[in-house]
Amino acid sequence: MTQNANQHGFTLFELIIVIIVLSLLITVLLSRVPLYQELAEKTAMEQTAGVIRSALHLRVASYLVKGRVNEMTGLVKDNPMNWLAEKPQNYLGEYYEPKPGEVPAGNWYYDLKTHELVYLVERGEHFVPGKGGLKRVRYRVTLLYNDESGVSVAPDKKELGGVVFQLVEPYTWKAG
């Protein structure tokens, strides 16, 4: 039997090389999946906070238009999730100072004691918490007051100057 010089197909060696290259590419891709999941979590959390800020601006504008400026002080004790037309799927509701582990990571909750909206980080390999050391991000509605020069000061010093949805303590979420 003679061997055809125009033989088509892979040799065993070529097949092994292709399998090794594909295995390396798949390994590299799969090693990046947790990072992409973490970045998606960060983006979703920050997007939710941005939507709440927009809802707060609309609420404040509504108070101003209706001449109900004095009622804006009540916003500091209001649950910001109630301002949304549709709450995020990972919002679990209101808790009164929940114990660690009571609320699963990857979810939002509103703390009735501190009047803070809290997000518990689930995929936080690159998350660096603030001084509290817990993998969470806390927001609070805060009133700003103005003195005669327009500078924000303490509440006992003049008129209401604004309302903000701000971080309680700083955090960083480093890129991987």
Backbone CA Rg:
26 Å
Report strand %. 15-25%
- The level of helicity is 25-40%
- The overall strand count is 8
Shape: elongated
Order of helices and strands: HEEEEEEEE
Spatial separation of the terminal alpha carbons: 59 Å
What does this structure look like?
With 176 residues, the chain is an alpha+beta fold. The protein contains 1 helix and 8 strands, in the order αββββββββ. Strands 1, 2, 3, 5, 6 and 7 form a 6-stranded mixed sheet that branches. A hairpin with a 5-residue loop joins strand 5 and strand 6 (152-153). The longest helix has 54 residues, at 12-65. The N and C termini lie far apart (59 Å). The mean pLDDT is 86.
